[in-house]
TrEMBL record:
InterPro entries: AB_hydrolase_1 (IPR000073), AB_hydrolase_fold (IPR029058), AB_hydrolase_sf (IPR050266)
GO CC field: membrane
AB hydrolase-1 domain segment(s): 21-258
PANTHER family: AB HYDROLASE SUPERFAMILY PROTEIN YCLE, MONOACYLGLYCEROL LIPASE
Any GO molecular function: hydrolase activity
Organism from which the protein derives: Verticiella sediminum
SUPFAM superfamilies xrefs: alpha/beta-Hydrolases (SSF53474)
Name of protein: Alpha/beta fold hydrolase
Length: 296
């Protein structure tokens, strides 16, 4: 099995399929490298697709020290995978925790990203929500440690923003929950404490985000309530961002609505590669109506 070596020596399992321009897929907390199967089936016949398991997610290494887990390290791990796969620049697609990491690649390593898809991002992003999100992350970490992943997975997988997936596709949701139950409980707990609970507020990064020129597509489900304000904020702040809100959709976007998600990502990447995805024209900002000068 191929492994990348992170900057601190942690081994990261990755897989590569297909050939052509590269797309790297970055999974969410409740997923893993297997979560992108609908995307690989769609894109790998025409492009090189790379998936990997984040640190703490076997078959990647599971460090047992909290300091090994952080938002900055999660972004740097993506670059380590790029290096190991021999990819100079890639389109990077991330969901939720992976979406935050993808965004931070744009901030920390913009030269390595041809484009960014930032999906399902927003939990705990607003300063008013940070304390509650941190407390919930720590509480979930304690549950993984106390119960183990298999016992706790059905509860975690039944959060409000996961219900739309469960209603649309009970069998798909059950497979998603079962795979969550296979996760390493220590890795899950440390990821919650080190990455989720300690990531910086998007609103504290406003100046950095305003300077991010990498083409970006922000994607949210309209039934994923906690991501909607942050998605609007990113659309308004990033100079080269577009926003897609999928109707009747929750948090597990790529599995819940794979066809719509794949189509949106494909159209976005095509626009970027054709140099048709440009920064927002400043003339599109301003009053609702252009009145003009009074006529004589």
């Amino acid at each position: 099995m191929p492994y990348a070596t992170a900057t601190d020596g942690v081994r990261l399992f990755y897989e590569s399929q297909g050939s052509g321009p590269a797309i790297v897929w970055v999974h969410e907390f409740a997923g893993d490298h297997r979560s992108w199967e609908p995307q690989l089936r769609h894109f790998a016949p025409h492009r090189r697709c790379v998936v990997f398991a984040a640190r703490g997610y076997p078959p990647s290494d599971v460090p047992h020290e909290l300091q090994a887990y952080s938002q900055a390290q999660a972004a740097d791990d993506i670059v380590s995978v790029l290096d190991a796969a021999g990819i100079e620049r890639a389109h990077i697609v991330g969901l939720s925790m992976g979406g935050f990491a993808t965004l931070h690649v744009g901030l920390r390593h913009p030269a390595r990203a041809r484009s960014l898809v930032v999906a399902g991002v927003g939990y705990g992003a607003h300063p008013d929500e940070a304390a509650e999100f941190q407390a919930l992350s720590v509480a979930a970490a304690q549950q993984f440690e106390a119960l183990g992943s298999q016992a706790y997975a059905p509860t975690y997988a039944a959060g409000p923003a996961r219900i739309p997936y469960q209603l649309k596709n009970p069998q798909g949701w059950a497979e998603f929950a079962a795979r969550l139950g296979e996760h390493d409980a220590t890795g899950a707990a440390l990821t919650l404490r080190g990455v989720q609970a300690r990531r910086p507020s998007l609103y504290a990064l406003r100046d950095d985000l305003r300077g991010l020129q990498v083409p970006t597509l922000v994607v949210a489900g309209d039934q994923d309530d906690l991501t909607l304000p942050a998605s609007l904020y990113l659309k308004a702040t990033l100079p080269a961002a577009g926003l897609l809100v999928l109707p009747r959709t929750g948090h597990t976007i790529n599995l819940e609505e794979p066809e719509a998600f794949n189509r949106a990502v494909a159209d976005f990447i095509a626009a970027v590669e054709a140099q048709r995805w440009t920064p927002r024209d400043p003339r599109t900002r301003g009053p609702a109506m252009q009145v003009g000068e009074p006529q004589a």
